[in-house]
Structure formats: C-alpha cells, structure tokens
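COMPLEX REQUEST
Ligand: S-adenosylmethionine
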Amino acid sequence: MVKPTVLRALLMKHGVTLKKGYGQNFLVDGHALQEIVQAVTLDRQTGVLEIGPGAGVLTAELAKRAGRVVAVEKDVSLRPLLEESLAPWDNIRLRFADILDEPMEALIHDELGGFQRIVLLANLPYYVTTPILFHVLEAKTPISDIVVLVQKEVATRMVARPGGKDYGVLSVTVQYHADVRLVADIAPHCFMPPPSVHSTVVHLNCQKMTPVRADSELSFVKVVRSAFGTRRKTLENALAAGLGWSKEHVREMLEQAHISPQRRGETLSLEEFVQLANIFATWKS
Ligand code: SAM
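STATUS: Structure written out below.
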C-alpha cells in the first residue's frame, strides 16, 4: 500500500506526470488493493499477467503471492520508476508495450507457459477497458480467472441480463466466456487522481463458462455484433445490415432458429445467439 504523498514523491523523483489519456488513476487505498488480490487464490504455482502496472503498487502485492508476475505497461516513461520500485522482487517481468498489440496466445505461452494456473489481474485503464476485455476473452489462452477493476457502469453491463438497457455485446461476450460476479465497489477517493465515477472489482471465472458453445467463434462474434450494431432496430434489419444479407435470407435463418424477426438483439439470450451463430456458420459456407 502506498500513501498518496509517497506516490507523489516517487513520481516527482522520476519526473513522471500522470497521463489522463492513458487512464492513469493509480490505486492508493490498501483495502481496495486487497479486494483485487484476494478475489482469487494466488500461490507459487500461479502465473499472473497484469495489464498496466502503473507505479507497481498492485504488481508488488501480486509478486508476494504468485510464482511470477508479467506486467505489460504502455507508458515507457514509467520504466525507471517501475525498475526501481520493483527491484526487490525477482519474480516480476516488465514488458513495455500496448497490450492490444500483444498477441495474447504467444505472450502467455512465452512468459507464463510453465505455470499450472494462469490468472489475469488489472486495474484497467478506463479509456480502453472494453477493447482490452475483448482482446483477452476472444484469444485462445489457458487463463483460468480474470479479476479487473473497471468503471461501475462497465461492470453493470458485464453482468446485465437480456431485456435491459445495459445488455449488449459486452454482456454476451463476457457471459459466453466466463461465469461473472461482482466483487466490491470502490469509491473514487481510493485512486490518485480520483476519477469522476465509481468503480467495481469484477471476477470472471473462465473455467465455469456456459456449456453452450458455438461451432465457430468467428460466426458467434459476427452475429452478436451485427444484432447489436443498430440498437432499437428489429433483428431482421440489424442482421441484414450487419451481415450484408438480404432481409429475406435473414428471415429464413431466423425462422429456422424459431426466433421472431421482429425481436430486437437486446432480448436474445446467450443460447439463442449461439443457435443463430451455428445456423449462420453453415449457411455462409
Ligand atoms: N496498476 C496501477 C494501479 O492500480 O495503481 C495503475 C492502473 S491505471 C488505472 C492503468 C495503467 O494502464 C496505467 O499505468 C496506464 O499507463 C496503463 N495502460 C494504459 N493503456 C494501456 C495499454 N493499452 N496497454 C498497457 N497498459 C496500458
């Protein structure tokens, strides 16, 4: 746990100014930190991937518990600070890169390949939370658990059920890949600088995902994104626009799935999306 005064002095010593554009709201609350690290069991057989170590406060907590921590940070100006503050730990590997440019499969294989269990933990940068979640979830990796601190509004979308205004591509994608649970709400004063919104720790158990699987994940992604592409449009119109198919063709596909063309994407269950994706996969080929 780092006090704001200590963190400020550390940043000043290394001439680092916090970048709003990189979503740099650093954790300065010990209780919030514990909510993240204790959301899953960590031991020496566990390899951890951390996205955005910032000043390394969470990274050090993870290194105390896990076998190895690989921390990927986009902001290279943090390198001297991180190298100094994390020097006491010999089980941390720092990589300076944009996580969205990192092929996840290769990253996990090369850096954490020998570990029994692989876990991702991160206080995610708010400006790019959703792309990072898609990047991680849609890759074929052996990650068993994901614990992320995200904006409360994003957490609400992650657990949203069909029919509500928060249910969308993020809800379907997260719930397809994992069993998701909200762990704790974190107030703005737990960060430096405090963000304007509340945050939530979310745990995704990727081993307890729904047994309903799509034959082709590419088709699943395409159908889900198309269905939500134009909200408030009927499925018939949204899918025709998104898939580039005629309405007649779309109606036939929906008929085969016993789904009314007049329904809207936000009313479809995960199982219905999988069913549609499976029909789409056979019809397009
Ligand atoms: N882990 C630290 C903490 O909890 O105090 C910092 C969290 S801060 C919310 C997000 C961190 O992610 C920042 O250090 C930021 O520079 C980094 N970051 C932003 N975009 C990134 C990206 N695309 N790839 C990797 N790191 C990124």
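REMARKS: The chain has twelve helices and nine strands. The CA atoms of residues 180 and 204 lie 5 Å apart.
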